[in-house]
Amino acid sequence: MQSHFPPRRLAAMLAAVLPAVAAPAAFAQSAPEPETVVVSATRSNLTADDAPQTVLVIGKEDIARQLAISGNSSDVLASLLPSFAPSRGKMTGSAETLRGRTPLILVDGVPQSNPLRPTGREAHTIDYALVERIEVIQGANAVNGLGATGGTINIITRRPGRNSLSQSLEVQTTLPTADVGSDTASYKAAYRLEGRGDAFDYLFAVSYEDQGLHLDGDGRPLGTDNTQGDLMDSRAYDVLAKVGYDIDADQRLQLSVNRYRLKSKAGYLAVAGDRARGIPTVSVEGDPPGTPPWNDVWTTALTYRHASLAGMDLSAMVFNQEFEGLFGADNSATFQDPLIAPVGTLYDQSRIAASKYGSKVGLTKSDLLDGRLKLTGGFDTLYDKGRQDLYGTGRTYVPESAFRNLSLFLQGEAQVTGALTLHAGVRREKSDVRIDSYTTLASFRRVAVEGGKLDFNETLRNAGLVFKPLRQVSLFSSYSEGFGMPDIGRVLRSINTPGVSVSRMRDLQPILTRSAEAGIRVREGAWDLDASWFRSRSDLGARVATVNGAFVMAREKTRIDGFDGAVSYRFDRAHKARLAYARTNGRYDSNADGTLDAKLDGLNVAPDRVIASWTADWNDRLSSFVQAQHAFSDTFDDPAMNFGGYTLVDASAAWKLPKGELRLSVANVFDRMYITYFSQSALVEPKRYFAGRGRTVSLGYAVRF
Which of 10, 37, 605, 693 could disulfide-pair with 100, CB 3.0 to 4.6 Å? Predict the structure, then answer.
């Protein structure tokens, strides 16, 4: 390895782009008035400040700042949401939870999660360079269907601008500050064409990214995850197309198609680390066995809106998603079969394929009782069919299963007084799962399992209030219920007892999560304050555990509670600081005695985290951004999983040129050497004792024409 980039040269470079003194007030830019955004994920045309629970809207400027630092979508979310678990930095994002539970991820309202066999890949189904904003509803809810036991993350793609025709181009290269070379360089480019006529509008966007080898803070290659898939040493592309037609002033029809593919280049092998000596897993050049892991996703949606249908607002959507995820090959004990090859010599890899079709229809009436009552009603449908096989040998790992769901919902909002608003709703879920008969793998004794049908009917309720004693202050509280399915694949593939019938399995019962929250919002001059306490509980939860190196699902009583808050202050029109904090604590019943006697580990909950940031517009051309993140140390029931904590600092600057904008960013400014939270506290496995990425410098250019 070559020597590290000299710190004094880095300091000089930063000094050139991040001025240490404020620019004269005459050059300060006027701060734009915050835009009031209707959060489509609420399904009832609510704004974030009117919701009875914590709702955050992440705008494209915030997304762009984070993408200048890291192109990993999980890094973007973790850097803006302290209640979101730190990113693993891998293709698979299992254990990246929100408030200690799994979030439902949507793209333009289309669910990316697979309800029957979660893959952990749903955070990597779109390039965030093509994203307009991200809506986050924290806490269990059912307004968008099953799966939102930790909350909802709705990713809204770019929309056409107002110009008749415009184009934009963005390019970026990222290099480490140690061992710079072609193998450690990463490149990205994105192009967008958009326009509109009298009634039509359109958008076409494409992005491509080629990531090289990543290095840790000591200049060593990060360990690659040949089985779960990795973001480093990979290529990805995304193609997004949208066509919209305004039928008249009230009606709009839009078709959108997104195609995303992420595939490992498979140029490295992992060398196991030594946890006791603090030596992380590293990578060496080599050819991994099998076919390189990939994510392959098609998402299609057709939406229709009528803003004045007999005095009501109608929104309707039909959608389809086709997903295929391939995991890397290994010779784990699970895959061995002496009828195919001598035990210990058989390499195989699992593949998950899922196809979903669905619809969402909502109708809102806003002017009932002289405008004091708003009602939203509608229905959702979902049909999801999937399987998991072993790609190398064609064996069944998880049998084909089909999930059908019909949901009816009604949501109300009543203005009781000028200061008090009540919210309440009900959702009726009617679902069934059909699972084929199958035979388990040889490692599970080749047991014949009888397929069958499972029926689930749940009535989910929510209620909340927003009280504004002063114009600047909002107090809110809510109770909501979320509905989800356990990971059926992890249950079915591990059956090793003869005579089991799917229709009688308790472990396949749905997960009902009850969530309560109370909080405050303050909007006073230059100050913004948001704070809330939350608790969620499940009588039959789904805790992820490891047994003999394999992930399994434990159905146990669980409870998670915590606090999250954020405060921001605008010093003047050009400078703004923000501080956000989240604390999460989770417990479960380990011995079925009704007592929450054990602590949830890093596979299930995030560490306590604080994030500080400072945004500055030094003049009409130069702006800068600095953020620091600290994950607090923690202890767990298994001392081997104790977490040591770490602090990371990132910085970026943008300079507007006569044509376009130049961007420079430095991630992990102090080149901190650290082991990721997942590797410290989620599992104890030498080959997955991964370090985090060391310091990188990114240079980018964006132009609109």
Answer: 605
- What ranges in 41-195 are assigned the alpha helix state H? 60-69, 73-80
Give alpha helix (H) positions in 469-579: 488-492
| Alpha-carbon span 620 to 30, nearest angstrom | 10
Taking the alpha carbons of 109, 101, 60, 258 in that order, is the dihedral positive or negative? negative
Do 270 and 226 meet the contact criterion of CB atoms below 8 Å apart?
Answer: yes
For the chain, percent of residues with pLDDT exceeding 70? 93
> What is the phi/psi pair of residue 644, to 5°?
-85, -15
Tokens matching residue 306: 């009528």
> Which residue in this structure is represented by tokens 């500050």?
177
According to DSSP, residue 164 is labeled: S
Question: Which residues in the chain show pLDDT less than 70?
Answer: 1-36, 542, 544-553
Tokens of 695: 């310091």
**Where are the extended beta strands (E) located within 436-557?**
438-439, 448-449, 452-470, 473-484, 511-524, 527-538, 543-547, 550-554
CA atoms within 13 A on the CB side of 551: 18
Q: Which residue has the tokens 């195989």?
A: 348
Among 704, 666, 590, residue whose Cα is nearest residue 175: 666
pLDDT at 12: 44
405-454 per-position pLDDT tens digit: 999 999 999 999 999 999 999 999 999 999 999 999 999 999 999 999 98
Please spell the DSSP secondary structure of 19-51, one letter per residue: -SSPPPGGGPPPPPPPP--EEGGGSS-EEGGG-
Which residues, 6 or more positions from 12, have their beta carbon under 8 angstroms from its beta carbon? Answer: none
Among 58, 98, 12, smallest CA distance to 605 is for 98
For residues 537 and 583, what is the distance between their CA atoms, to the nearest angstrom? 16
pLDDT value of residue 26:
33
Instruction: Give the closest residue to 401 by CA, choosing from 298, 502, 509.
Output: 502
- Cβ atoms 242, 306 nearer than 8 A: no
Residue 572 identity:
D
Q: Terminal CA-to-CA distance of the chain, rounded, Å?
A: 42
0.85 exceeded by the pTM? yes
Tokens of 16: 């050139």
Question: Pairing relation of β-strands 696-704 and 598-599?
Answer: unpaired
pLDDT of 260: 97
Residue 545 pLDDT? 63
Q: How far is CA 159 from the centre of its chain?
A: 21
How far apart are alpha carbons 521 and 73 in whole angstroms?
28
